[in-house]
Write a structure and sequence with these properties.
Layout (H helix, E strand, L loop, with lengths): L2 E3 L5 E5 L2 E4 L7 E3 L4 H6 L9 H10 L6 H11 L3 E3 L5 H7 L2 H17 L5 H9 L3 E5 L3 H12 L4 E5 L23 H12 L6 H7 L9 E4 L4 H5 L3 H9 L4 E7 L2 E8 L7 H11 L3 H10 L12 H19 L9 E6 L6 E4 L10 H6 L20 H9 L5 E3 L3
Parallel strand pairs: 6-7, 6-8, 8-9
Antiparallel strand pairs: 1-5, 2-3, 3-4, 4-13, 9-10, 10-11, 11-12
The chain binds zinc ion (ZN).
The site of zinc ion has 8 residues, from helix 12.
Length: about 400
Amino acid sequence: MAPLVKPALRRGWRDLNTVQFGMAPAHAMTLGPMDPATGSFLDLLNGTRGLPLLREEAHRMGLPDGHVDGLVTGLARAGLLDDAKGGGPAADALRGKKEVLDRLRPDLASLSLQTTGPGDAIGQLAARRSLRVQVRGAGRVGAILASLLAAAGVGEVDVRDVGEAEPWDVAPGGLPAESVGDRRDEAARRTARHWAPDRPPLRDRAAQSPAGDPGFSLVILAPRDDVDVHAPAPSTAEPLVSSGTPHLYAGVVEATGVVGPLVLPGETGCAGCLHEGRTDRDPAWPRLVAQWRSGSGRSRAVRACDVTLATTVAGLAAAHALAFLDGRVPTTAGARWEVSLPGLTWHARPVWGHPACPCGAAEKGKKGARAGEDGKPHETMKGQRSSKERREADAARPAGTWRAHV
Ligand SMILES: [Zn+2]
């Protein structure tokens, strides 16, 4: 082990014997009491020394025997310690790819704030490389989303769509102007690769998965069609629900951006639940949806899609996707986040499991077991900590450490 105090957290002394790690309230923490000698010893915990060398240094500085081990254990339990050599074989492989890791350094630092154990952050970053995600829809939102996921280290980002890239698909981070006239899905895959050129080729990886099993950790539905964004068809997602594939919705309808719901089949409300719930509240809903779907003049017109709104939606959707892929349950599970121009205030609208929907989420909800609150890890959380364990870990913080209210 080569311990380092998480460099992502800025350090400051609140008084003579209390250190504050971090600035922003979400992750800031204070640790004390700490004497000045121990405080200056923290500078040696920078990932360049193993424990034996650190013990020698401590001895030279006149710190008592066992002090280093106690300090390292305490910092690790408080979630303040990383391990420059930890994270397992996949992390070691990632460290061997210097250019890749250099590009991902800010993301690694960010992950270190969301993980507790030494080496967890790089372990999680390395795990992203083995994930397969599919993005359906390569308009402005979908193409940017695919690029973001690739840039964040997701190993395989497959993009599906039809037709050719149009001038109005072009957006920074998404399809470039040169791609107009090219196949839309190919152009989006090429763009995603541009932002993360080091990933293994798609075909080789696909060949490794068992025949007939798409094996996607997550499917993101980012339709270019505004009706599909506003009123996602339950039939489209039915194969995903029945195969138990987690999927996330994102898109722009008129001047409203939508992120969610993230559907954990059988656990959180799906497109069918959304449709049934809306029909309960508004009996005219199915009639309206039918008209929108068959509406005249629907196919020709270029749909409204503000480029900054599309980018905002893609960014938030990608962040929710990553949170899920990293083993957490984001707030889009069972909810749609919506934002409208020009006010730009985000609202979450719950998508409850509906008893008339065959997905089974309503039954799950009845038991009071909302996703992420029953402590059961979801499919891609295997080997990672559930939210309950996380809470327990938080509760187990050693005395003298607490969240700083700054
Ligand atoms: Zn449902």
